[in-house]
Every structure is written in structure tokens, then in C-alpha cells.
Amino acid sequence: MKRALWLLNGLVLLYLLAPIIVVIATSFGTTAYPVFPPQGFTLKWFVNFWSTPELRESLRISAAISTTSTTLATVIGTFSALALARTRLRGKTVLSAVLLSPILFPAIVLALALLIAFQRVGLAQTFPGLVLAHVLLTTPFVVRLVMASAAEFDPSLEEAAQNLGAGWWRIFARITLPLILPGILAGAVFAFIMSFDELVVTLLLSGPALQTLPIRIFNYVQYSSDPTISAISTCLIVAWLIVGIPAYARLMSVRHQGGA
Amino acid sequence: MRQKVAWLLLAPNLGLLFFAMLGPLALLARISLKGYESGHGIVETWQLSNYSKFLFDPFYREVLWGTLLLGAEVTVVCLVLGFPLAHALSQSRGWKRSTLYFCILMPLLTSTVVRTFGWMILLANNGFINRTLTALHFIHAPLRLMYNRTGVVIALAEVLLPFMVLALDTALLNISTSIYEAARNLGASSVRIFLRITLPLSLPGIVSGCVLVFTGALSAFVTPTLIAGARVKVMSTLIYQQAMMLLDWPFGAAVAFIMLVTILLLFGASMRLSEQRREA
Questions:
Q1: Residue B36 β-bridge partners
Q2: Which residues in chain A touch residue B20, judged by CB atoms under 8 angstroms apart?
Q3: Percentage of chain B surpassing pLDDT 90?
Q4: Max intra-chain CA distance, chain B
Q5: Chain B window 16-75: which residues touch A at a Cβ cutoff of 8 Å?
């Protein structure tokens, strides 16, 4: 019974990891289209990714959008989290629900709403429009992670500093900020990954001049099959694993506390 | 901190929500009540025809029904495969738990487009699954796993499985170990312990996991598009097609609102369900 359960779980894990294993494996194969298990070994698809001008351009656009929107989302989200966690505000529960609400909507619904609105004010198919949409989608994650950090620490630390005559800026810079910094960093990492991988909203709002990397992958795989896509994917998988696992573990522990 | 400071800190975020979410959603609602003529574009009249078109045309009702069915199938697959895994995760400690946790987080950190691409390689007519089954003489002609619902269910369940496992893990961790010890001391069999303790006490986790997966499947766009193309139409691909290819924004907006209401009703129903359980 116990052995059968372990076997079943092993198969489920294999199912869960299968597409990732396949993508990584096919990025090293020598055949002209992705074949699993791969034949031979080559790095030419990685070279191809780097030497194709349109792919490099897409990487640049994606990086620019993600960096800008992450910076804005981190500042806006941290402000909100501080206001919610460190003050006695009435209707806090409702407010935090409102702030977290953008992640509840199906992406395609928000995407169409934003397209209709942005078309009116001339933000559709522009860089600022895409950044604004990404800030909307990623700020909730920053709010959630920073709120958890801010709720963890003892408010008497701030009171003690105040009693000793420290000004509000000094209190913020020397006590509050260092204590919530892990939450801010985790939130920023999370926002960056979310923004970099976002496809649906970006697909509707970006014009031909703003093809992000996920859009490029989405279009490629619909009409052709090329191991270069596997190579790009492998780069993304490895990059997100390195920066993302600590942030994700933190988000999950937050969710766990919230559920308890 | 004083109230004024708090509102000042909240101002940028509230402004963002107002201009980039509330406003656009209001415009979406408004445009769903407008008419559309091909060649002329949006007609400035107030009408409910977009909604009645969706609800009375059997083709569109079929799309809604097919989407709900897909969501139900994916949810069942995730629950059946996710429960044993979540149980093992909640029971393990130390490096075992870390390793399992890592294996479940890794797919979540990989974008849906990338994972769906992996499934395309696996599910194709001459893909790994079909070639393996043919080599083992299980089948003679390749199974059709792409461009149909089967493929979408296989890939979408994989995409959403981590959410189910993590929701169940949270619920299972909340069950105190002393309850298990007491049951075992009183001579309960492991089947009885599972049916009388584990299952009822993890019900909140089952409900929240199912809601997460079901709503995720209803709003999925990338996986159905890439795996099934135009063969399987779901709500999100219908919205995309209407809005981006036929440029019929009013009808696309109406479909978007019908989808939104469906999801909100589901959320409401699941909340009622968990509240009733708490009272009982």
C-alpha cells in the first residue's frame, strides 16, 4: 500500500516536471526541430538565440518593461503595505481586498478592458501603456509580501526610537526599512518574474513594435518548431530558479500564515 | 502614524486601481451594451443584443458549456493526482520536504508558454508519447493528443496542479498530529483514519484548491490556444477572436462580462459553502 503510494507520487512528479525536462533536453539536441529524447549535443541553439537580432531586440524590450514596471510596483506596493500594516485605519480588511483584487480577474478580461481604455487615451501599443498594465498586475504581490514583513516586527521598536527623539525619516531609514527589506526584495523579484512572463495582457496591448520575448515564443511555436525556442526557455527556467525560489518560498509561508 | 499619512501612502495605489482597473472595466461594461456593424464599427446605441446573442445562440452556449466542462475535468484530474502528493508533502520533514517542495515550485516558476511548448513536443503525432507507445506495440496508429480536448486537459491539469497541491498541503498541515495518534491508539485502521479524519478535516483545502484550479482553467488562454488551436473553442479564446480578429469589441466585451459573472458566482458559492461548514 505504502509502496504503491510512493510509486503513484513518483509518477505524478514525473508528469509535473515532464514539460520542463523536455524543454531543457531539446535545447541541446542537434536535430532541426525539437525531438525528445534529444540526439547528439550542441550549443548552437543558444548561440542562435543570442545572434538573432529580433530575439535580442525582444529580450531588450522585455527587460525594459519589467525593470520599469517592477520599480514602480515596488514603490507603490511598499507604500500601500506600510499604510495598511503600520497604521490604525478603519476598513483595513476591505482595503487590502481591494488592493489585491487585480489578480482575481481573468487576464483576458482585464486585457480587453485595458485595450478599450488605452485606445481612447492613446496608450495602446505604447511603452508607457504596457508598463502601466504590468504595474497593475504586479503590485498586489508586492503589497502582500511587504505587508507580511511589516506585520512580523514589533511596533514597540518604532515607539522606542520615537521616545528617544528620532525623527520620522530616521525611524524609517534606520528601523522600519531594514526590517521590511526582505519582504520588499522578495516582492520585487516576484513582480519582475510575473512581468517578464506576462503574455495575455501584453499580447492585446503591444503593437508590432513591442514584441516581448513571451509574445515571440508564443508566435513561433504556433507556426513553426525550432529548438531555439527550447534554448530561450532553458535560459528563462534557469534564471527564474536562481532568483525566484527564495521569493516563492517566502510567498508560500505568507499564504500559510494567512490560512492558519 | 496618523490617518492622513496613511491615505497619502495609499493614494498612488488607489489611483492606479481607479485609472487602470475600475475605469477600464466600466468602459468595458459600457461598450458591451453598444451595437456593432461590420464595415462601420461600433454603433452608438444602447442595446442588450450582445448578451441575448450569446445566451440564445446554441453555438455560444456550447462554448460556455464546453469551458465549464473543461474546468470540471481539469479540477477532477488535479484533485485525484494532487491529493496523494500533497499528503506525502505534508507528512515529510527535513530534506525530503524541501526536495518535494522544490519539485512543486519549479513548474510554478516556469511560464505557462514554456510548459505548454514542452507539452506540444510530447503530445504531437510523432511526439515522444506516441513514438514510445508505438515502439512498445501498445498502439499501431498514433493517438490524437493535439488539437482536441484530451490534449488540453492533460496539459492544463499539469499547469494548474501545483496550486492544488499547495492548497491541500496547507490544509493537511493544519490537522494536529495528536488526532492521528489518538485514532491509532483507539485501533482505527488507516483507511478509517483517512475517511473519518483526513478527508473531512482537509475539506477547506479541497474547496479552496478546487476553486483555484477551476477558475484558473476557466480563464486559461495560452494552453488551449497552443494545444488545440481553433479546434476547441473556450471562453477566453472566443473573447480574443471576437476582439482581435473580428474587431467586434461590443460582443467580445459582453462575453468577457459573462465569463466574469460566472467566475464571481463560483467564488460566492464556494464562500457560502465554507461558511456553512464553519457554522455546522
A1: B42
A2: 114, 117, 132-133, 135-136
A3: 56
A4: 77
A5: 16-17, 20-21, 23-25, 27-28, 31
B104: domain CATH number is 1.10.3720.10
Amino acid in position B117: F
CB-based contact B105 A26, cutoff 8 Å? no
- Subunit contact A249:B101, Cβ cutoff 8 A: yes
Within a domain: B242: yes
Q: Which domain holds residue B188?
A: 47-279
Decide if pLDDT at A259 tops 60: no
**Which of chain A's residues have a Cβ under 8 Å away from the Cβ of B236?**
106, 108, 200
Of B174, B172, B197, the C-alpha closest to B184 is B197
Residues of chain B neighbouring A20 (CB-CB closer than 8 A): 106-107, 110, 114-115, 118
- For residue B20, what are the CA distances in angstroms to A137, A161, B143? 10, 39, 45
Classify residue B250: in a domain, yes or no: yes
Residue B267 pLDDT class (50, 70, 90 cuts): confident
CA-CA-CA-CA torsion sign (A17, A23, A28, A32): positive
Which residues, 6+ apart, have CB-to-CB distance to A188 below 8 Å? A70, A73, A74, A142
Contact criterion met (CB < 8 Å) for B118 and A87: no
pLDDT at A260: 32
Provide the number of structural domains found in chain B: 1
Exposed, middle or buried: residue B193 (CB in 10 Å: 0-12, 13-18, 19+)?
middle
Q: Which CATH superfamily, name and number, covers A54-259?
A: MetI-like (1.10.3720.10)
What Cα–Cα distance (Å) separates residue A175 from each residue in A66, A154, B230? 29, 11, 56
- Looking at the predicted structure, is the pLDDT value of residue B5 above 80? yes
Residues from chain A contacting residue B146 (CB–CB below 8 Å) = none
B182 found inside a domain:
yes
CA angle A185, A186, A190 (to 5 degrees): 115
Q: Tell me, what's the pLDDT at B280?
A: 55
CA distance B60 to chain A (A): 17
Which residue of B1, B17, B219 is in closest CB contact with A108? B219
Phi and psi torsions of A117, nearest 5°: -70, -45
Q: Is residue B2 a part of any domain in this protein?
A: no
Q: Which of B79, B117, B128, B249 to mutate to test the interface with A (most CBs of A within 10 A)?
A: B117
Residue B217 has pLDDT above 80, yes or no: yes
For residue A258, what pLDDT is reported?
42
Contact list in B for residue A204 (CB cut-off 8 A) is 240, 243-244
B195 touching chain A per CB within 8 A: no
As a whole number, mean pLDDT of residues A199-207 equals 94
Q: Which grid cell sits at B124?
A: 504531437
Domain parsing of chain A, residue ranges: 54-259
CB contact under 8 A, B118 and A107: no
- Maximum alpha-carbon separation in chain A: 71
